[in-house]
Design a protein that fits this description.
247 residues, alpha+beta, 5'-nucleotidase,  domain 2, four-stranded mixed beta sheet, 11 strands, globular
């Protein structure tokens, strides 16, 4: 009986509150002014506040770390920059896990062209703006077949170390480091934490059987690659071979 009374009081209270708010006058919009946000909109006090921080940030972002021999675009099925990024990931992964087989990342995460000339810290942040961490993931050979098909269905991705033909949106003639894929073995793939969840229509990447974090972001790998090249008096050039052929 006590439980029933308690329940009745709670229900009655909810109904009373609802009726009270239903009787209140609805808010009315008396005036609307749309303010377009663009470069012409300035707030002097706010601008004065952030200017010192902006200057410090701009100074650090403009530090030159390398040089590109040519302009490299982002495009499908692959392009000079998408291939370069994948090559960078594979190179960095093999410093820590030498038997890493190939690299894959999503073209959507590469957000800007790399222009010919000086490469600055700011360029790397604009090309790879997302805080994606790198992982070496281990897969069964059958999952690699599914991954290649997923990449083919999307019309291409940023890959290195794995090659295949796209025929009728399916992957054919799949090879890893020049060898036909062996479904009986496992393969190690460098990718990102974002893709390890199967995001961006690459669901087979979520089927890994083991993962090893490299404790670095994707842009850190690019920083390391570019600065190491500069230390060795080398410039960043576009790869001359490609991994995907559309037939």
């Amino acid at each position: 009986m006590k439980k029933i009374i308690t329940t009745f009081i709670i229900v009655a209270s909810v109904i009373s509150i609802t009726m009270f708010y239903n009787k209140q006058p609805k808010p009315q919009i008396s005036n609307i002014q749309l303010i377009e946000v663009n470069g012409a909109l300035h707030h002097e006090a706010m601008n004065a506040l952030i200017t010192p921080y902006r200057n410090i940030k701009n100074e650090s972002m403009n530090v030159v770390i390398g040089e590109a021999t040519e302009t490299m675009e982002v495009a499908k099925p692959e392009s000079p920059l998408t291939r370069l990024i994948a090559d960078i990931l594979l190179t960095e992964a093999r410093k820590y896990i030498p038997d890493t087989d190939f690299a894959v990342t999503n073209i959507g995460g590469i957000r800007r062209t790399l222009f010919q000339g000086n490469i600055t810290i700011g360029d790397v942040f604009e090309i790879l703006p997302f805080d994606n961490s790198l992982l070496v993931l281990e897969y069964k050979g059958t999952d690699i077949l599914a991954l290649a098909d997923a990449i083919a269905a999307k019309g291409g991705e940023s890959i290195s170390g794995i090659t295949f033909d796209i025929i009728n949106n399916k992957a054919e003639n799949i090879k890893i480091n020049g060898l036909p894929i062996d479904t009986a073995r496992t393969y190690k793939v460098i990718s990102t934490d974002y893709l390890s969840w199967g995001n961006d229509q690459l669901s087979p990447l979520a089927n890994y059987i083991n993962s090893t974090p490299l404790n670095m972001m994707m842009r850190d790998a690019m920083f390391d690659y570019v600065t190491c090249a500069t230390i060795n008096n080398k410039k960043i050039s576009a790869p001359t071979d490609y991994c995907i052929t559309i037939k």
